[in-house]
Design brief:
By secondary structure, the chain is mainly α. The chain has a single domain, classed as Orthogonal Bundle (ABC transporter involved in vitamin B12 uptake, BtuC), CATH 1.10.3470. It is 84% helix and 0% strand. The chain has 12 helices and no strands. Helix 3 runs antiparallel to helix 9 and helix 6 runs antiparallel to helix 9. It starts with 6 loop residues before the first helix and ends with a helix.
Length: 282
Amino acid sequence: MEILHFEFMRNALMAGVLASIICGIMGTLVVVNRIVFLSGGIAHAAYGGIGMGFYFGWPYLPSTLGFSLVVSMIMAAVTLKARHRADTIIGVTWAVGMAFGIILLDLTPGYNVDLMSYLFGSILSVPQSDLWIMLAIAVIITGLTAFYYKDLLAMSYDEEFAQIRGVPVKAIYIMLIAMLAVTVVIVIQVVGLILIIALLTIPPFIVERYSSSLASMMIWSSVAGMIFTTCGLCVSYAFDITSGASIIMVAGVAFFISLIADQMVIKYRNARQSHLSKHKIK
């Protein structure tokens, strides 16, 4: 409880909670729609917007958000029109966008940007103004997901059935990618490039097999993200190590524990079924 005496730790914990809610909802949609690679592409390509902002002296949020939305729409169009080439084109866009941003940062006169701060974020230095922005984005994303829940559910699990039912699949998919781009831009400045990918993928992967519905998967993914960020911040405070990396390691350990536990459960079930089969034969 000692960490709650410091304002920067309270802000960091709140930022972790909000990031977990946003990534829990969007990460669930990313995992069930199998667009993890696309989300990674948007996150890396966002460096182009960061570089443009610093080079031209533009505010971070508009420049990065605009660049990321353009890149995400290109990726969405590619995945809709040429899925057999989508992974290649997304990979190229990913690399070019990141390289473009790094070059612009190198060319920015009189200012050297610490790229590590964008890789692992600066969650310990989150101001209250950013918390209000994250809260607004969390409310908007939650509202849109709740309003279009049935359409998102149908598109995520059976696209052909959704089209037959009259769901505007392309429009919903483009909205999903746009929401993902906004999520990346808002959260990346707080938790960093690597952590946002971890929060988008690890919690939904862990809770997917234990969830009975898409909504419950979103809720439990958000809860898992909160646990990971809180434990990671405590570990960071206790051992005086980088907070973003600590959160990632906590999530990574939980990921591998879940894999091992699943394998043990599968082996136990197989052994039990084999034993029951032999008993019936006798």
